[in-house]
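Appendix B. Chain record.
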Amino acid sequence: MSTRIHSALGSSPEHYAKLGLKKGSIAQWEDGTRTNAGARGTYEWWYFDSHLEDGTALVLVFYTKHMMSPKGPPAPHVTISYKTADGYSYTGAYEAPGAPFSAAKERCDVKIGPCYFRGNLREYDVYYKDDRAEVTVHLKSNVPPWRPETGHIYFGDKDEHYFAWLPSAPEGEVAATVTIDGKTSEHTGTGYHDHNWGNINMRLVMNHWYWGRARIGEYRVITSYIYGEKKYGYNEFPIFMIAQKGKILADDGTKLTFTASGEFIEPATGKPVHNSLVYEYDDGGEHYRVSYTRKKSIVNFKMIEELKGFFKFLARLAGFDGAYHRFTGDAVVERIKGDAVVEKQEAPAIWELMYFGHHR
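Structure tokens predicted for this chain:
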């Protein structure tokens, strides 16, 4: 019989003290580089996504290196995904070995070649440029920065490995200018920024996760359900945050019940996917139900196909079986008193399913 290895969300006073963090309070330095900008044995990225009023989706990510190669040298790069409602799609990357790269420790200020990601937990400016595309983004947050406890999930009997996550701007107003092949468009909408880092290959500690964020009427929600890998007993990490009018209403993941239903096998990846997700939060005082109903899949791919050269060879050798899925559909927030739904709001949403390991 194999022994289950310890894993847990860092939530004790000792975890807070070790990391220099304060419970319920986010400091600006937390959005600065936390890994010495790609030090050996680590990875880090700053993420931005937006759902724009005309149906366009824009995603920009600044990486110190590939998340699956923490032991490798720094390999800074920026990726872009731009999809319009009428079906036009542009994906690209700025990758330039030897190009200027820096990341400040005291605040979010990342530079990779001509691209930059800058902000102060309230407002952010993001700029991207490659040989075909140029993008300028301004994000003004409507919700205070937040993290589930310390934001660190620890793996190992001595907490020696971790994955960390900080939703620096859980939701905000976006203004974006996008130029592709000489054609310029202006956009407004809602956006999100988070910051992730860690010190172990994610496929070694995580099996899969569902993650979503949505703007639903007056409510702003972040939802996630993470499953550890087999050797960690497929340990579950429930994550939930709901805010209204700039105030966080509830965020204790231990009060969350998660249900996934309507399972089918996605042909493109061979992974189980669910048509319905329900996150139900009830702490005895606040009771909310957030539901996602899938209408269609907009991204399905095996992650190994995104790798190149030697990294792809190593991934095949290791039996890497990761996959990524992104969905569109409807999100619903229900506020419940006793046995009655006293408020219900609905809006379009985008959410994801990420597999790092073989499905159970």
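Further analysis of this model is presented in Appendix C.
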